Amino acid sequence: MNMNLNYIFLILPLAILFVNIILLIFFYNKIIVYITFISNLIIFFIYCILSCYLDFSIAEIQYKYILNFVPAYFGIHYLMVDTISYFFILLTGFLFPLCILYIYGENERVNKKNSLIILLILEFFIILCFTVSDFFLFYVSFEVLLIPMIFLIYFFGSRGRKVHSIYLFLFYTLVGSIFLLYSLLLVYKVYGNLEFTSVLDLSKLSIEEQKLLTILLFFGFAVKIPVFPVHLWLPEAHVEAPTVGSVLLAGILLKLGGYGMLRLLLPISNNILLEYKAFFITLVSLSILYGGLAAIRQVDLKKIIAYSSVVHMNIGLLGLFTQTSAGLIGFIFLMVSHGIISSALFFGVGMLYERIHTKNILYIQGLSRVMPKFSVFFLLFCLANLSLPGTCNFIGEILVFLSLGVENSYFALMIGVFSAFFCTLFCLILIVKTLYGQIDRKFGVIYDLTNAETFIMFILFFYVILFGLCPGFIIQNLEVLEYTFIN
Amino acid sequence: MGPTNKDYIIITAQCEDAYLVSYFIAGTIPLFFLIFFVSFFLPAKLDKKVPPHINVPSHISSEFKDQNAKNLLHNRVISLMFALIFCAIIYTKIFNYYPMVIVYNDSTPLALDPFIYYTLMFLIGSFLLLCQLVYRYKIDLKKEEVIYLAFFILSALIIVLQFNLIGIFMCLELFSISSYLLVTGLGRKVSIEAAIKYSLTGLLGTVFFLMGVTFCIINYATVNLYYLDIFIRYSMYDGASMPYLAFCGSFFLIGLFLKLGVTPFHFWILDVYKGTSPITFIWLVTLSKVVLLFILITLFEHVLYDFSIYYEYIFLGLSVASIIVGSVGGLRQANLKGLLAYSSIVTLGFILLPFTYYSESPVYAITLSISTLVVYVFNLFSFFYFLSKFKDVSVIFNNLFEIKNIIRSNPVLALGFVISLFSFMGLPPLLGFYPKIFLLKTLYQSGYFITVAICIICTLFTSFYYFLIIKQLTLSKTKTYINFKQLTFVDKIIIGLLLFINGFVFFFFDNLMYFIYTLF
Q1: In chain A, what residues touch B327 (CB-CB under 8 Å)?
Q2: Contact A178/B506, CB-based, under 8 Å?
Q3: Could you state, in order of their start, the residue ranges of all structural domains in chain B?
Q4: Which residue, of A44, A211, B51, B462, is most buried by count of CB atoms within 10 Å of its CB?
Q5: Closest Cβ–Cβ partner in B453, B506, B509 for A182
Q6: What number is the ipTM of this complex?
Q7: CA of A408, closest CA in chain B: separation in Å?
Q8: What is the overall mean pLDDT for chain A?
Q9: pLDDT at residue B61, as a whole number
Q10: Can you give B234-292 as a three-state secondary structure string?
């Protein structure tokens, strides 16, 4: 392994972010704002270049950097990147420049300095989350994300129920972290370190410990996915958060749960998942049905999209619990595609909200007459959200359903396919209620998308179509999963 | 490991180093001077300036009293601080010449070793900070109160030096009496009730402690900790008498638990803390624990070392009980003092929990216990420091919901508050997280699975009520009027320093633990 490449791929993005945060705090002016955007682009390009150097045919850690300056609290800590974490890092690097671009175009009233600082702190810890090699640092950076997220919701949120939503967000996450902390201690007791790779060797864990860890880790990460009984924070947080906050919440923070499940739950529950499969799949199916039904009933645009993300993340989870190669690939594919599509939808709602200052679906109609560009993109993304063939969501769902069929889980398959009906329903509601009909005069003059906003929507749509038509970009690179997780 | 490794230089009256005794005494002389000076000379001069026609009712809280007393307060506090700095210099000089020393070995020995020295420095530093806080809160102290404070400081400093049980008992008694008197404050009805409750429980604790000392005299015929060390070093116990000796030693523990307010004995703590004035509350909640924990560690090191295995389940049960009681009880508190009282009960549980495996690894247990305490005291100080920036402190102390939103009007102060409260909650990268995680890790590896689960769940409850304060500070409805004092440049530097320590302690917390570890 080349030492310099380790620095470039793992340390350089974090260093750029750190310097940028300090610049923003102490020397804020317009040039620094442009530098922020450029540095985020640089980070994205670094991760793009990483794909050329990464060998997708092996499952081992490919680039790692030992953190000498961090005391070895739970074994040696280092940063690393491998095939699984790569796609999440790339998604992070992809979404943040768009968010910053969106903030430039926002209203002047918004304090850009503070929102940029909070955004960069979030990005720092999200990248840390996806690149750390052990459970302890993952847990730490997972929890740190709470503080900037709370203040992003509070400062730049839209409505009066902010405090309520912050309470829900904080305490649901803390309840999840109780389970994670306990399982962290258990893993450390057995293995003597907390590295993700050491968990792959199950010979040290007794059956009882495996069962306990499976339950704990499932509920710990289920809060973040979110699965049915612990999902209530998501719609509230989405509704109250600003556009960028919703985008990051749906685009990246929900993926932390999935990433944690891939890293920890899947290897640990490898031998005994059969016993708990029925329970887990029932919960997941319930949340699919519930999310779909709840989404139909909502009047708030953001809540509809939030419940649709509950549905999609849980369909992905069905794939995880099949323990087949196709299911796992489907899970990761669905997470990536959901990251793109739902963030695009949230961007769209944010753009709409800036113009007409409402998210209530009953007040909005006939947008296609005044905002043609917006309407085209919104229509396309809604169609992508209901997994139209040719878009990336379709590939992910098909892979998951395929794996369910292979595993003979016909009940879950039935629910999954049935949920596609609900998805279609609420996406059609979105389309029909907002885009068609007579435009209401009380909104006054509504402008169409600006160039920056068009660019954001276009680039997101480009990737939706790209991954929809050429899924091989991701699927080929993920076939290695079969050798790591499935015995 | 334990008492066996320590080699003291012993100085008696016949030694040529006997002048050292005068140094030891000299360390405390400035405080005596201060008491006389303050009580007899200073007030007499300044009291004349108060106009006679202003007749302030005595039941009104101290903030609304005569403004002329502020100068007086300033002088008193400054002189206290100078006395403390003088003490610190003298003890540092002694420590540089004699790092391990016992003077007057036969009658009532005093000792100085690294642990004692650093405890002294910690206490003196805390007292300096507290004096600074007294000045910041602009609270008028009566002349009696200054004497009580001086005795409080004096006894706390002398307890640490004592190397015999009688001396510890006497200084502890002085310490307790001065704190009972501090609680009475300006003589409000609530305060007097609180003081009576405090003194009754405290005196009961003293009785138990004295019983322990008596049993010690009966069993070993000595109260000198150096001779008790020799008992431990050569294992001069009869194996059959161990349970009996453990029983006798448990009287010490009960006495200290009563004074600390560990759960079955915690009922006084809420009333007493609610009845005190804000500044007395701050003195009690931060420093009484430090002194009492020092006594507990000293006892474990020199007296209870060999039969600490008998106390394993006592400590386990009591600390888990206090964690549960403190975390659940604080949920419905609308009184900031009551909330902090419950949080102190929780912290007490976390401080005493390491003693459950004292018999396995004594030094590590003490290290964890001390680091928990130090972190808690640090957090409390930073919290009270930030709180001193509010104008209506005594109202805030009595009602949590009087805390106004300051995030728009003063974001720097709000950030400091939020970080220190998240640190109380034990959110990962911050200071409060590390003692907790190391404690839970060690407990889990010793096999206390259920205990760990209870502790983790209880931290959720505690985080709920700490977040209540954060909510009041940052998320409640914004009021237009400004209810805080403007931050000076020094304030901003201090806030930055506290934030730095809280955020970057991740990189050097093991050094802190190692430092405490090497003191033993």
Answers
A1: none
A2: no
A3: 307-520
A4: B462
A5: B453
A6: 0.88
A7: 38
A8: 87
A9: 44
A10: CCCCCHHHHHHHHHHHHHHHHHHHHHHCCHHHCHHHHHHHHHCCHHHHHHHHHHHHHHH
